[in-house]
Amino acid sequence: MLTFLVRRLGVMVLTMFFLSLVVFFFVNLEPNLTKLATFQTEMRASDQEKESWLARNGYRDNFFVRYGRWIGVFQKLPVTDPTTGEIVGRFRYCDEAKEPVYSGILQGDFGCSTALKTKVENRLPEALAATGILMFWVMLVMVPCSLVIGVLAGMREGSRLDRWLSVLSITSTATPEYVSGIIFSVIFATWLKVLNGSAATATSEGISFYNFTLPVITLAIYGIGYIARMTRASMAEVMSAQYIRTARLKGLSFRAVVLKHALRNALIAPFTVIMLQFPWLLSGVVVVEAIFRYQGFGNLLVTAASNNDIDLVLACGLVSVAVVLVTQLISDIGYAYLNPRIRVS
Length: 345
Description:
CATH topology of the largest domain: MetI-like fold
Radius of gyration: 25 Å
Order of helices and strands: HHHHEEEEHHHHHHHHHH
Oligomer: single chain
CATH superfamily of the largest domain: MetI-like
CATH class of the largest domain: Mainly Alpha
Distance between the termini: 8 Å
Strand content: under 5%
Largest sheet: 2 strands, antiparallel
Helix content: 55-70%
Number of domains: 2
CATH architecture of the largest domain: Orthogonal Bundle
Strand order of the largest sheet: 1-2
């Protein structure tokens, strides 16, 4: 197992490196740099003045040099104001070093947010914490409900209960978050006036039960159907296995067979599916947080992309890649422990 972990961690580091390189390349394409120079200079600045700003702030340096500075393996050089000759930072609102220094991702410096007028690390943890709380409650609702639905449907494959639960699962999975989110907003906030608009205030006035209700329901319902369908298929396969029939022939009750023999083996496959819901939730919250104006990671990413905030987009992309890789590692480890037939060489 130790060799397996070391190998997987090495693969994760290489994957993180190559994906971050790809994200850095696309975010730093010429149109994005031109927009950044336009926002940071006067709107009527000439093309020459914009080019001068990009060159002065290091955006015209070699691509790998800029990537190394962002990572923190190359020194960031101070910027000199051409009019006064004073050493200044790239952006006025960020307290950047005025001397050559190693300052990048490895040092905990994620850059400066041009949209929020502050350092990225000042806002990113707060947004991640808000989204983490949201995701916790979504999983707390989604996982038990989906497992119960899947197990009940798989226990009685082909029955009327199985058909009804399968229809509900397929319907929930076929309804995107932005559709169900709008429907719930109309039903609860507009027609029933249950929330009185509190769901749209998000974390600006503090997290409460009411501003969590619609986002949690919207995200949970979409995931419940998918996990329930996978659980049902796994449960139906286990219930038709030879050892289950043997247990029934020995005189064990149906309840004992399900709880002691079938359930544990049937949950092996859904465990992997459940762990893979974390990357999906990270992308799903972008839509849901935008709909309900919840001030979390998804809303932060939308703000960064809308305002061409290069450093903030890069930081959000790096966090997304890290979450996907970590959840896949946990999924592989958990699957190896749950399934005794798997042996790691």
